[in-house]
Every structure is written in C-alpha cells, then in structure tokens.
Design goal:
alpha+beta; Peroxidase, domain 1; 60s Ribosomal Protein L30, Chain: A; 4-stranded mixed beta sheet; 4 strands; 65% helix
Length: 186
C-alpha cells in the first residue's frame, strides 16, 4: 500500500511535467510500454525490488531496456527514481499514471467478466451502463471470460462491482433456501 501511495506521487509529478512540457501523449505511450514490460517480466520486477543490487546497476539495466524506446523525459524520470532509491515503486508508477491520465481525459475504465465472449450489443449495453453510473461518455471496457460464472456478468467500475452472474444468483438462492429451512425447523 505504501508503495502505491509513493508511486501515485511520482506518477502525478510525471503527469504534471508531461502536461507542462507538452509531451503528455508521449509519456502515456512510455508508461504503457513500462507497464507491459514490467508485467511481462518477473525477473525485472524482482530486480527492481532487490535491495542488494546497486542503484546504478538498476539504472543501467533500465537504460539498456528502454533506451531508444521511451522519451528522454521518461529516462530522466528513471534516473531520479534510482537516485532516490525508489526503483521498487516503478512497477506501480505506470498503472497509477494511467489512472490519473484517464481521469484527466475523462475516460472511465471498467472491466467485465462474463461466462462467454460478449456480443457487440452486450458490449454497447455495458458501456451505456458505465456511462449512466459515472457520467463519463468515453468508456474503455476490459473483457475477461470465466466459464465458472455459468452465465451473466460481473462488472467492475473503479471500486464498485455489479455482480449479475448466474453463479452468484444461485449462491444467493441457496443461502435463502437454507435460511428458510432453518427458520421452519424452529
């Protein structure tokens, strides 16, 4: 939790600096690349968290990975993080940056888990629901399939969750029946 709070501060600084310098879209692309790279490499995450590896070595590795792929501003940002011994928060900076970027741009992100792939009509209906709940017209929907839901969907919008899955409805029905059976025995 503490790492995410620190990462949020660094992400906010990077967002503000990107806006100030007029390179916000470039920095957004850099943060997308950083997020994908860190998510795809367990070794990189472990390296960044390792207190035994010297900070200059971590910076050299980050530079080798990202040189020519990210802007100079982002490379300087990596340098500042390593100088302040904060490489361990780097894996949290990109997601925090993306959240702040979406808020700035008025984009609402939501994730939906369904038992089967969504049809285009269902996708549009879920986007309409998210727009109705949040008031933001621009919606980015992340889709996952989980056959264990049996049917229906689970929609997550920020910290809200709408669970309209068959699995949950069956669980609620079972609980209700058990309560009724218990009350009838008394």
């Amino acid at each position: 939790m503490a790492n995410q709070q620190v990462a949020a501060r660094y992400a906010k600084s990077l967002l503000d600096l990107g806006q100030e310098m007029g390179t916000l879209e470039t920095v957004k692309q850099d943060m997308d690349l950083l997020a994908a790279t860190v998510a795809g490499s367990r070794e990189l995450r472990l390296l960044l968290r390792n207190p035994i590896v010297k900070h200059d070595k971590k910076l050299a590795i980050l530079t080798a990975i990202f040189q020519g792929k990210v802007s100079d501003l982002t490379l300087r940002f990596f340098t500042i993080l390593t100088q302040k011994n904060r490489e361990d928060v780097l894996e949290f900076v990109a997601p925090e940056f993306n959240k702040m970027y979406n808020v700035l741009r008025g984009v609402q992100t939501a994730s939906v888990t369904s038992a089967a792939p969504l049809t285009e009509a269902a996708r549009q209906e879920l986007k309409r629901l998210v727009t109705q709940k949040t008031g933001l017209a621009d919606v980015t929907l992340t889709e996952k399939v989980d056959a264990e839901l049996i049917g229906g969907f689970v929609l997550r919008i920020g910290d809200q969750q709408i669970d309209d899955s068959v699995r949950t409805n069956l669980r609620k029905l079972r609980t209700s029946l058990q309560e009724n059976t218990y009350q009838n025995k008394m």
